[in-house]
Amino acid sequence: EPSVRVDALNRLANICDRSGQDIGFTPEEETDMYRQVIESYEAILERGGYSGPMDELLYQMAKAHALIGQNDASVKRLQQLVGQYPNSALVAEARFRVAESAFADGRYVEAEAEYGKLVDGEGAAGDLKNKARYMLGWSLFKQGPQAWERAGQRFVAVLDESIPSTLSLNQIPESSVDS
Questions:
Q1: Does the predicted TM-score (pTM) go above 0.85?
Q2: Residues in Cβ contact with 96 at an 8 Å cutoff, skipping those fewer than 6 apart
């Protein structure tokens, strides 16, 4: 049963993550396991009878595709998640992964657009938003001289966010100050 297999494999992966121990899969066995997971996810999607959150299923499916080097399929599932479940808590992470893929493939204008959506407030917060801000600058920089001024503005904005305030400098514990 696909949903039982997916549940079992997810539990196994969670146990490995939490324990920090290798369960001894060879790279070929691990790839085969993820292929089985993908087949199970696809069977679940075809049936439409999944009782769990579909956004999580799509995210896990994208992750499984990425783990076996199927980047295009991974991005397709992430885009599906963003399109079908725009209010999901996973949208920001999915959008960031789509932007990362575009950047890695040299599609800097597309990467700029995706990072820009995160920077401009589509669900990203904290560290993810800071990474998106930084990578937005790089996406612009990689577009060449015509975008360097905008890239510089983005990089300066990232640096401005990182500059400590006088208050924060005055709150450094004595034990952290070299004498």
A1: no
A2: 114, 115, 118, 124, 128, 131, 132
Mark residue 70 as left, alpha or beta (left: phi above 0; alpha: psi -120 to 50; beta: remaining): beta
Residue with tokens 């920089």, as numbered in its chain: 141
User: What type of residue sits at position 136?
Assistant: L
Give the helix ranges, DSSP H, for 48-70: 54-67
- Please tell me the distance from the alpha carbon of residue 81 to that of residue 87, in angstroms, as a whole number: 10
Distance CA 32, CA 9 (A): 12
d(CA 160, CA 167): 15
C-beta separation of 77 from 95 below 8 A: no
Q: What percent of the chain is helix, strand and coil (3-state, nearest 5)?
A: 75, 0, 25
What would the two tokens of residue 159 be?
Answer: 């640096």
Q: Of the candidates 122, 127, 126, 116, which has an alpha carbon nearest to the alpha carbon of residue 154?
A: 116
Side chain identity at residue 32, one-letter code: D
- 83-120: pLDDT as tens digits: 989 989 899 999 999 999 999 999 999 999 999 988 88
